[in-house]
Specification:
Blueprint: E1 8-11, H1 17-33, H2 46-54, E2 58-63, E3 66-74, E4 92-100, H3 109-123, E5 128-134, H4 138-146, E6 150-157, E7 160-168
Parallel strand pairs: 4-5
Antiparallel strand pairs: 1-2, 2-3, 3-4, 5-7, 6-7
Helix pairs in contact: 1-2
């Protein structure tokens, strides 16, 4: 696959796996250096990304042929989500594994990825977007609140407490 020179968000292909995984490893190292113990070798990993891509659920942000960000979009969620009082009905879209290359952070790329997910949800007739963010990742939690996502509650996973968010998708 040949990437265009312009910035774009596209569905990830098998050819993107190595580069997406390399960026993921950079993100893990960066998060660890910031004292954020959210991700490790167990999750997420190359196999996780490969499964996303195989199911056509992975998306990459590409600039000058380089992957700068990644996310997965699907309807799957952990059973812990069932214990929360979500405000919108089904169907809903879930954002997973949204990350941006450390050297590209602070440039609005995560905002573009979120807007892409919102447009994808609208075009595919989802009622809302839901996801969770590690409670100790202040940067991520701040971004989601600024983007109009509502805090719904918390769930507990292997790495600790995660804040859950939701945003209704409006159709005209």
């Amino acid at each position: 696959m040949v990437f265009l020179k312009k910035k774009m968000i596209v569905r990830a292909a098998a050819a993107n796996l190595i580069q997406a995984d390399n960026v993921l490893e950079e993100v893990k190292t960066h998060m660890s250096s910031q004292g954020i113990d959210q991700w490790d070798q167990e999750y997420p990993n190359k196999d996780t990304l490969a499964a996303d891509i195989e199911r056509k659920e992975g998306f990459v942000y590409v600039d000058q042929g380089q992957i700068l960000a990644y996310m997965a979009l699907n309807e799957r969620h952990d059973e812990e989500y069932n214990d929360l009082s979500w405000e919108t009905p089904v169907p809903f879209l879930v954002i997973h594994r949204l990350y941006v290359k450390p050297s590209a952070q602070g440039k609005g790329i995560s905002s573009q990825m979120i807007r892409y997910a919102e447009q994808y949800a609208l075009e595919n007739q989802y009622k809302s977007i839901r996801f969770d963010a590690f409670s100790l990742n202040n940067q991520a939690n701040t971004v989601y609140l600024k983007k109009g996502y509502k805090f719904v509650g918390t769930v507990s996973f292997r790495k600790g407490i995660f804040n859950c968010y939701e945003k209704e998708i409006y159709t005209v």
